[in-house]
Amino acid sequence: MLSAGSFVVLMALVGLGGQGLGDPLTGPHPPLPADQDLFWGSDQYDFAVVLGASGLECFWHFAHQGEHFYLTFMVQWVTGVGNDRHLSVTVNSPQGLLVSKIDEASGQIKFIAEETGFYQMCFSNFHNRFGSMQVFLNFGVYYEGFADKQKQKEEEKKEKEEVKKDLNNTLSSIEEASHRLENYVFHMFRHYNFGRMRRGADHYLLQSNSKYVTWWSAVQSVVIIMAGYLQLYFLKRLFNTKPSPEAPEKPCC
């Protein structure tokens, strides 16, 4: 069962995912006409979520058929007794079929959507029954064939308008170059987000190691002091003197 926070995030993702389609969608299988000109957009989301002991969080994201769906995740910190950094991640299609599954501390999932609808992403912390973890997520969709589709439309238009051939060629090249640049920038931000995940995980690891070294040094210092005190105490007991009944002026140990 999803928590209240997960439900709010889910509603936000559903609302943002359907902005390019006009009216809000009421089901995972919207009735899209075959001749409808779909919006091939690119969107992405990145945020962190805390999974409790044996916790499960699921999110849904809308994707059109032919779009590239990607998901990147990384465990930033883990708490509890006998903690395990492994995270079980599954992605299901709108029909409920398993698309991909990973059981690691970090990973990436990429595939081309074969059907239009809401794809389910579930994150399970069943490895840790007595501890929680924080996971950074970055996911979204993009369509690399957008430039090719626009180029095809421009070619059909050039056949009908021979007079504007040079102008259309120039505009088509500019548009194709702008879409290619936009695609490169989009992928650059994807790699930047993954690097930010790794830096965050390293930061929490350094904090954890610092606390561990501090406490362990304090414990060792206490043990060393206690051992020295006990050694001194027993050595002092060995040299306790008492007068001898035969020779009172000669002490004995």
Would you summarize the structure shown here?
By secondary structure, the protein is an alpha+beta fold. Helix content is 41%, strand content 28%. It has two domains: 1-28 and 38-143, Sandwich (Jelly Rolls), CATH 2.60.120.380; 146-239.
Any overview of this molecule?
- The protein is an alpha+beta fold and 253 residues long.
- The chain contains three helices and ten strands.
- The longest helix has 74 residues, at 165-238.
- It starts with a helix and ends with a strand.
- Mean pLDDT is 76; it is low at 1-40.
- It is a single-pass type I membrane protein.
- Its main location: endoplasmic reticulum.
- It is found in: Endoplasmic reticulum membrane; Endoplasmic reticulum-Golgi intermediate compartment membrane; Golgi apparatus, cis-Golgi network membrane; Membrane.
- It comes from Esox lucius (Northern pike).
Question: Can you lay out the helices and strands and say which pair or pack?
Answer:
Elements lengths: L3 H14 L25 E9 L4 E8 L4 E11 L8 E6 L5 E7 L1 E7 L4 E8 L8 E10 L3 H15 L4 H74 L3 E2 L7 E2 L1
Antiparallel strand pairs: 1-8, 2-7, 3-6, 3-8, 4-5, 4-7, 9-10
Descriptive tags:
253 residues; alpha+beta; Jelly Rolls; 2 domains; 4-stranded antiparallel beta sheet; 10 strands; elongated; endoplasmic reticulum
